[in-house]
Design brief:
By secondary structure, this protein is α/β, with parallel strands linked by helices. The protein has 19 helices and 16 strands. Helix content is 40%, strand content 16%. Helix 10 packs across helix 18.
Length: 504
Amino acid sequence: MIQIRRNKQHGSKFIAVSMVLVMTSALVGCSNSTSNGNAKEASTENGETIVLHILENDTAKSEGYLQELLDAFNAAYADKGIQAVDANMDEYTDLATNGPYGYGPDVLYQANDKLMTYAEDKHILPLTVDEFDCYEYIPDEAWEAFRMNFDGETYCFGVPVNIQEPMLFYREDKMPENWESEWDKNQNQRADFFENWNDLYAYSQYLRDTDESANKDGQYGYMASLNNLYLSSQFVFSYGGYVFGENGDGTLNVADIGFAAGDTVNGMSALKQMAALMNEGCIDDTITLNRYEKVADGSYFCCVSTPDTYGLFVEKLALQYETQDGLSKQDALKKAQENLKMVELPGLMPADGDLSRSSQELADDEWVSTVVMGGVNGYGISSYTEHREACVEFVNFATSYDMIKTRAEMLGIAPTRSDVAKQAGDTSDVIFKNLAEGRIYLMPSVKAVDQIWVPTQTIMGDIAKDAFREKNNEGCKYLSHSDYEEAMEIVNQNIYDAIFTLTE
């Protein structure tokens, strides 16, 4: 059995490593006989260099972190016959399709739901977690996202790097001058619109009402792509919705789909209300794509995104200060770093889903805690690589203190390594606290989760569009709780059909 938790009695690593090879053979079967196009280079036994192809996410590539990592690794391993290169593939490349034919990466960085989809079908290798120096610094909750049970034994398939949850990004210099007197009614030195959704709605309404631009499109409050389940998950999970239920043994029951559970009808009503204060970009990916520049130029007061995009917001804001305010590159970057803020989504939502009510009218029992979808990103190793041990060396290096610290500095991630988290600020502590308190619903680590995105995107986008049907004097589709309930039942049914049609 592979060790999942560090053996306090210092059990034999040799035994653990030997057993992982046995497990690899059992899980992968004959896949090792498949020629890997990414690893055709001869081993160092022939005096040649092993070349590892590394798949990272697009942000890490565009912001220069991947090159930083590759350069550092290659310098450190120049005399060891191992070289790492960019896999030069889309971040969502399909390992299941490409791997068996030799076109997949050797090492890939993905969210837990994607990595564990590969694990379920034996496309990535089980790992011995105490092979990695980072193990003792990473909380068990993060490792749990990469664990899976096979035949009564639990195995780990990924090494956690950072934890994600949707966060609010805004410019400190765009805060209303009177926020302390007008928007901090409980006088706790935190603006009400960062504490509850009714005040965020109210402030967004205020900005729309006072928009003086010619086309009334220059001043918005809270902005998000409402069709995106991950970024707008609070409208589902805060109201008792869930992805999959559980069996008696705690495993996921993918036949039990919960997007219509609890009071999600109230959440969908709130989603439609919020859409009415946005532009039509909220019904598709438009806001997700333009949020960096729109926060930078002040069109959007705040936008929802994930911690690892912090650098993209800073980059656009620095450019704004440089081009519009005439600051030098250095001064513009400094000012952007001072003013770009990242905070949690407001922690309270109205239980009845009515965002238009004054927050002061609501009693304590008329609120529900905001719950968002989150995930853990990490590294996995392809089952199709011919160089497992070299891949372990790379992942060990990539998850070292120095490299995770560099990643945090360059990308603004919330690192899972506790020693780096202490240096990187309190974002990681906040996120892990939210996870422990049940305010983060971790993306399920099963293949069936792939089927939730399109059905939820379709319905949530359509509900958001209803706000614009109303503005255009067209017939609205969602006028009552039964309308919302029927829509969410359709989501459930479409997900069920997709899962079980594909598995037949």
